[in-house]
Amino acid sequence: MRFQITTSLALFSVFVKAHLDHDHHDQIPFDHVRFPQDIYRTRHGEVTADSVFSGITTFAKLPWVQCLTRESHVPFDIAFIGAPFDTGTSYRPGARFGPSGIREGSRRLTLYGGYNVPLEVNPFNSGLRIVDCGDIPVTPYDNKYAIKQIEDGHKSLLQREAYSPLGNDSITGQKLLPLSIDGKNHPRIITLGGDHTIVLPLLRSISSVYGPISVIHFDSHLDTWKPSVFGGAPSDQAAINHGTYFYWASQEGLIKNGSSIASIFVLKSLPLSAILPLHSPHGAIRTTLSGLEDYENDDNSGFKRIEAREIDTIGTDGIIKKIRETVGDRPVYLSIDIDSIDPAFAPATGTPETGGWSTRELRTILRGLDGLHIVSADIVEVAPAYDTNAELTTMAAADVLYEVLSVMAKTPLGKTVVG
Ligand SMILES: [Mn+2]
């Protein structure tokens, strides 16, 4: 907050002074690219419409910081970063343009200021320093190398210390303690994909700071397929793709207790409350299968499925309840495949499946995660080339992330007792 207010006031006063001196025809200050939100205001300080369609586009017109290179010393609380990788797709490619597409779709998020009415928070004005770090450089010629680039880029951001101190619990007044294994207060990263393969290197990074973690996964597909089933695994590298990355994440122990096959089988017959710590929930599942053994394999990878069609009977409240019961109050990583939304609302994706949730339903469900400790998040599989002229998909992706950002802004990443 200190940062945003002082910057805003400083630039605003420069702007007003320029107006007083010359009245009009001022050259836009060079800083307008860096702080577009602050510059595009009238002399009375209102945000103007041209502030959102002019200039170079960052996510929600947030300040661009070159976090991976010359400005690696600039601290932040939440960073958006692109991972433009799509050479792990099975059907329609194009998600390498996801980061730039989502940024385009996000331009209008702050036009009216950005206050989230149902969550009663303005994430852009919440005291946190939120930045757009641009994209991780990703080669399109070598998947193994690209996956390492994504892991290293994400780690480089995540392993820093956050800008703002954690502070105290708003109810008890007790000092909040970080959730990380090194006891430091780390920033949160929101990654713009990219196809879903990127979650393997992202979880490798997450695990370096938080250890094995529960994942809340919204997708029409399982993504825990064995490589022999999904893609046939003609080579080691082909075995790692956007349908198998959770299988590998589970094999590597990156997902909480995901590889604990025996425990899961034993505990499956117990009431839901008894299996709380063991599962990560998938939401919006509706894919066809090679057979029911795909579900057995999914169980063994540590996931609990919530089928897309369940919304017809239990509604959004029921879906939220299931997710919250599954993850408890543990730290979670959130991965959102845009194909969890129905192609009527979000057609621009690599492997669309009809019968999905509406954008409104997914946004409601995400707001229902309010209070959970979401350590980082991503949205993947946005392939803008298949979008409508009205930018339906990139707008949906941006709005979904706005809910995630709002939930993050409301809940500090700390507890009074770490367990
Ligand atoms: Mn997926």
From TrEMBL:
Protein family (similarity comment): Belongs to the arginase family.
Q: Which UniProt keywords apply?
A: Hydrolase, Manganese, Metal-binding, Signal
| MF term (GO), any | agmatinase activity
Residues reported in the UniProt entry to bind Mn(2+):
196, 219, 221, 223, 337, 339
Signal peptide, first to last residue: 1-18
Pfam families linked: Arginase
Q: Which InterPro entries match?
A: Ureohydrolase (IPR006035), Ureohydrolase_dom_sf (IPR023696), Ureohydrolase_Mn_BS (IPR020855)
Question: Which GO biological-process labels does this protein carry?
Answer: putrescine biosynthetic process from arginine, via agmatine
- Cofactor stoichiometry and binding? Binds 2 manganese ions per subunit.
Instruction: State the source organism's domain of life.
Output: Eukaryota
The molecule here is called: Agmatinase
Q: Which cofactor does it need?
A: Mn(2+)
